[in-house]
Design goal:
alpha/beta; Rossmann fold; 2 domains; six-stranded parallel β-sheet; 13 strands; Glyco_trans_4-like_N; Glycosyltransferase; transferase; glycosyltransferase activity
Amino acid sequence: MKIIHLANHAQCIGNGIVNVMVDLACLQARAGHDVTVASAGGGFETLLARHGVRHVLLPQSPRPSRVASMVAGFRRLVAQVDPDIVHAHMMTGALIARVSTLRRRYALITTVHNEFQRSATLMGVGDHVVAVSDAVAAAMARRGIAPARLSVVRNGTIGTPRLADTPVPAQPQLAHPCVVTVSGMYERKGIGDLLRAFALLRQRVPHATLYLVGDGPDRAAMETLAQQLGIAAQVRFEGFVADPRAYLAQADVFVLASHYEAAGLVLCEAREMGRAIVATRVGGIPEMLDGGEAGVLVPVQDPAALAQALGHLMTEPDAHTALTARAPLELEKFGVHQVSDGYLSIYERTLASCQPRRFASIATRGMAAASRVVQDTVTHSTTI
């Protein structure tokens, strides 16, 4: 198949949507498909090229002033590639692919990575819509996506080409006991809840240190909150780290305290490292933790419950050992090969059901026939 993936950018900034797309494009190219990624670029182009994936510069933005150039650029790309599948991972690309041509010869696949956004409804323009967890699929069904057009392919990072043949970094060396999160610095990621929980945890585990790995617009507010809670000296704001495995490998407990989470890739990474995990029972998180067997699930936006779970794991060695032993089991379902195979199956079924090339050819023949009729009529009228 000839496949085009659309995303706003290809930056190596910890964006889960981009990471999934890059993994998928590399695996599909490795399987022998003709794969192109179209985005504003930003860092993954070398990796994509190494796996036989073309990258085409196609800036995508929701700004109305950019629509004409985006549509023109996409049309040129389609004319060059003549794809069987266009796979849009973000809303702008989905809309471009839907409206740019009347006689599509490709099937449009959209993936809903962030269902909590209202704009996620627009991903329903796809011929087939893929949700990254059962929770997201249920939410999209409530938004009116018919079951026949909706499938689930869970995110996974096991075997990612982004880290292939790259050893786990040895540095930095963390202080112990420690709690680690790898997350964007957004309020919706529950960073404030984690800071409040850590302040409570310090009463039980006074020598604990909290490592916050990630960056984002709410970082300054979180640093201020740490000061207000009196824990700034025990909290390390590490910023964005391209390869956070050193932090995961040394975490005594890994935490994901999100208010919304479709299917956090970092949970796969923490499980692969054999970490004890505490996470909120929200969105697709329970599915990533086998319903709570591979991690402790706590209520969302409940710092007291989060602190209690952390304290239990950090003071009860048997509970901690049992959880670290369970975390890395049954991870095959989160392998990047399974993700790629799942999408390829959906591509094939969608092409078979909507037959875009057949209908495009029929429409083209119809237009050609109509053009001949018009020409004949004009010629006949001139002769008379």
